[in-house]
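INTERNAL AUDIT FORM
Audit reference: QA-55
Scope: verify that the stored structure record matches its stored sequence.
Auditor: D.O.
Record contents follow.
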Amino acid sequence: MDVKNISDSRQRLSGEYQNLVQTINRTRLAARELAVESTEDEYDLATISQNRDLLYDLHESKFQRLRSIEEALKAIDSGQYGECAGCGEDINEKRLMAVPWTTLCIQCQEKTEKALLSSSLVMAGMDEPETVL
């Protein structure tokens, strides 16, 4: 990856980082507002609970991406940006342009996703996904 593309990636990552920090702060404010809200109505309590769960999930996914961006910025600083953490090969530049915080090439990403799906199926009590004939 050339110096210009790395510089562009750094700018995109830094911008995304700042956007995520702002989003996380807004999510925290929304969660505080929900915490203050009180009601006796069961429907309202269920809605508040569901909204809290949703905000928590959003918050966690944003933090996960924030950590990924931090790792990508560290990789740029160490000269390892664009190197697949799975196989050590270079990650395709188009992939890095689409997902600048990625640490895996497309092949390793697919292997990881298949392994996660397989372990999820085993945990759910299924050995193989059922196929319809």
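Auditor finding: record pair retrieved intact. DSSP finds four helices and no strands in the chain.
Action required: none
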